[in-house]
Amino acid sequence: MPENKAGSKPATAPKLHHATFTTLRMDEMIEWYEKVCGMQTLFHSDEASWLTNDEANHRLALLSPPGIKHPTDKGHETGLHHTAYEFDTFDQWLNNYIRLRDLGIMPFLMLDHGITMSVYYQDPDGNGVEIQVDGFGDWADSKEWIAFSKDFAENPIGTWFDPEKLVKAREEGLSFKEIHERARAGEYEPAEIPEDFLLPEVW
Question: Tens of pLDDT along 151-174?
Fold first, then answer.
């Protein structure tokens, strides 16, 4: 038998399944993720909790082991910047922004990345949470675009937008494609452009 040298990566790649955070605010974190991401809490204790928002047994785990402490400069430390959740349609995504806005939960970043339109929130511990919709409505198309588009290569971070301007544009009858193109072109920029996309320091 010939030797198979094609072993540098698995034949079948594992899929990203869940994220785990340590926290000293178990109840607040659970309430927030239920509200913002539609999580169902399957197990909730002071020490550990498991939540999901689809068929998986869990997509988020929260642990509160003895001895943990709050970060000292989370917004400027290396590590995980955010986790992301995706809606299937633009209307679902924008309706969710409106729902959270009406609950007093506002994003700190709003960016049209081209591949996605995204609003970023912070959970009670200051972790970033991106809520997005695919910019093309199709992963195959957005995958090709991120790999080969000159537009993305020149501006991979994206264009800032004011979500209220998107709400108004939809009310005026514009389609998702039109809104996405205009946002990417800078037509819906906010009155003030953030200086960066770092996590705001909550500590």
Answer: 999 999 999 999 999 999 999 999
Q: Is 137 left (phi over 0), alpha (psi -120 to 50) or beta?
A: left
Ranges assigned E (strand) in the chain: 19-22, 40-44, 48-52, 60-63, 82-87, 109-112, 116-122, 128-134, 159-160
pLDDT (tens digit, 9 = 90+) per residue, 105-115?
999 999 999 99
- Sole residue written with tokens 């909730």: 44
Q: Are strands 128-134 and 82-87 parallel, antiparallel or unpaired?
A: parallel
Cβ neighbour number for residue 45 with a 10 Å cutoff: 10
Whole-model pTM above 0.85? Answer: yes
- Burial pattern 50-75, b for ≥16 Cβ within 10 A else e, equals bbbeeeeebbbebebeeeeeeeeebb
Task: Tell me the two tokens of residue 160.
Answer: 């800032």
